[in-house]
From TrEMBL:
Compositional bias (Polar residues): 1-17, 28-37
UniProt KW keywords: Coiled coil
Encoding gene (name): TSNAXIP1
Coiled coil: 113-177
Species, as recorded: Phyllostomus discolor (pale spear-nosed bat)
GO cellular component: cytoplasm
Protein name: Translin-associated factor X-interacting protein 1 isoform X5
Sequence intervals crossing the membrane: none
Region (Disordered): 1-50
Length: 539
């Protein structure tokens, strides 16, 4: 039976044409299919009834033929008996006229005849008794043949009943699908009308070419591969950059507790007006020093100390304000946005470090796969490296990375220059492949935390205990080792690892905070899946 057509193909349209013809078409199609089903069922019932009538008629004819056969057989036996009687009488007469013909005693023969006639009478009686008792009995061969025919007809009837029941169920399912399709169509039509009523015309982004510094070429480079929301951010960054360059001074934020320590100053602070390239290089140097540090101080304190060593105590505050305003503005720049998140304690340093390690490991594996050392990989080699580095990524995520690397499904290219995927321009803009890696990491972290929330089954404002979080983490990620699990719990409940209670301790139940706080704290660190949700059985 034909399945209903996909829902999205008929209703996900921005056309203003009413959907009533589509409704009539679907209704007519379903009604026609239902009528065809009913007609087939009627034909099957007629065929079954016809077969039943034919079997009854055959049985009746068989019975009549059998009775006729019995009558003819009995008549034949009577005629034979009469013939034998006449023959016996003739023999008697012959014996009476010439007693010496056979050389036997007439008395003896008469006695034998009398005994034979008695036997004949007894046999005739037995025969009549058997005829009376078994006159209606059907021969075994005919009985078995009729039984086989009846069994075949019964099986056909059962098959027809099963087919009818299946068709009836499919018909009910089809009716339900039709009702749900009509309901969805009405809903989509209402949404379409609402969107058509409230939506605004799609912006013409080509107008920005003459406004953005660098003209059409630079705008095309900035707008490549971005949606409308991202283009708004790019446009705001361009406008903000022009305004930032026009400022000569920044107003000091004072010494309030909400002000970061590296920005606490009164009065005005000079705007050093560096280029984006200068800021990116400065941030790279800061990360190099930070990663080389043995004694890790607080990141905001390190940042200000770095500026003091780089520009001297007199200009450190001016550079702090200048860099801060730049990294706060350029959200689309991966280096600046990550540095800003770490500086404002919205993201742990471990996230940045682990991301860089993943990129280095990925480049190393690709280099190892490049046996000819030519900087080229085949699609199969590239896909294999991705799956070895990211064993828990879904297939569609791997495909997204391959497309971001420039390998479409319809592409006829045999080789990929993998080294170009890890480059960035002088302003810190990374390749689409590197950007996709980071976006997938953020998405997978959000999905992981959403799974944790669903497993806990609590609202954000409800409180959750430490054992519940421990149990939920082990449920959604059974491969978590104890050290990693404890680090997650330590971050979620802000407890040092040494003070973290062991599993099944009584004081575990006393430790509880809001679920929203737990998720926000885990969002800051490098939290990711360590294995499949369900352990696969070992072969």
């Amino acid at each position: 039976m034909a399945s209903p057509s996909p829902r999205s193909s008929s209703f996900a349209t921005t056309s203003r044409t009413p959907l009533r013809p589509s409704k009539v078409t679907i209704d007519d199609s379903c009604q026609t299919e239902a009528d065809n089903t009913q007609e087939q069922e009627k034909q099957k019932r007629k065929l079954s009834q016809k077969q039943k009538t034919l079997v009854t008629k055959l049985r009746k004819n068989l019975a009549e033929e059998y009775l006729r056969y019995l009558s003819e057989r009995d008549a034949r036996k009577i005629l034979i008996a009469d013939l034998n009687e006449l023959r016996y009488q003739r023999e008697d007469m012959s014996l009476a006229q010439s007693p010496g013909v056979w050389g036997e005693d007439p008395v003896k023969l008469t006695l034998a005849l009398k005994m034979t006639r008695q036997d004949l009478a007894r046999t005739q009686m037995e025969l009549n008794t058997m005829k009376a008792n078994f006159g209606d009995v059907v021969p075994r061969r005919d009985f078995e043949m009729q039984e086989k025919t009846n069994k075949d007809l019964q099986e056909q009837l059962d098959s027809l009943r099963d087919d009818y029941e299946e068709v009836r169920k499919e018909h009910e399912i089809l009716l339900q699908l039709h009702m749900s399709t009509v309901k969805e169509r009405d809903q989509f039509y209402s949404e379409l009308q609402e969107i058509q009523r409230t939506s605004t015309p799609r912006p013409n982004w080509t107008k920005c070419e003459s406004v953005v510094a660098g003209g059409p070429d630079r705008w095309h480079m900035l707008a490549e591969g971005k949606n409308s929301d991202q283009l708004v951010d790019v446009l705001l960054e361009e406008i903000g950059e022009m305004l930032l360059q026009e400022k000569d001074f920044f107003p000091g934020l004072g010494y309030g507790e909400s002000v970061p320590p590296f920005l606490r100053v009164d009065g005005v602070v000079e705007n050093k007006k560096p280029t984006k390239k200068d800021v990116v290089n400065l941030l790279k140097d800061a990360w190099k020093e930070r990663l080389a540090e043995e004694q890790k101080e607080k990141f905001s304190d390190f940042f200000f100390s770095f500026l003091e060593r780089r520009f001297g105590p007199a200009d450190a505050m001016a550079w702090a304000y200048t860099v801060f305003e730049n990294i706060k503005l350029f959200h689309s720049n991966e280096i600046m946005s990550q540095f800003y998140a770490v500086l404002m304690e919205k993201m742990s340093e471990s996230v940045y470090v682990k991301h860089k390690e993943t990129i280095s490991q990925l480049l190393k594996e690709m280099t190892n796969a490049d046996s000819q050392n030519e900087g080229l990989l085949t699609m199969e080699q590239f896909s294999t490296v991705l799956r070895s580095i990211f064993p828990f990524k879904k297939e569609e995520k791997i495909q997204e990375l391959m497309e971001a690397a420039g390998w479409q499904l319809s592409s006829n290219a045999d080789w990929l220059s993998y080294q170009s995927l890890f480059t960035e321009d002088e302003e810190g803009q990374v390749t689409p492949f590197m950007r996709m890696l980071w976006e997938q990491y953020v998405e997978e972290k959000d999905e992981y935390l959403q799974e944790l929330k669903q497993d806990l089954g609590l609202e954000l404002y409800e409180k959750v205990t430490l054992p519940k979080v421990r149990e939920a983490l082990m449920t959604i990620d059974p491969s978590l080792d104890k050290q990693t699990l404890n680090s997650y719990l330590s971050q979620a409940f802000q407890l040092p690892l040494t003070e973290l209670p062991e599993e099944s301790e009584e004081k575990e139940e006393d430790i509880m905070i809001k679920l929203q706080t737990v998720l926000e704290r885990l969002q800051m660190i490098d939290i990711r899946r360590r294995g499949p949700r369900e352990q696969e059985p070992t072969s």
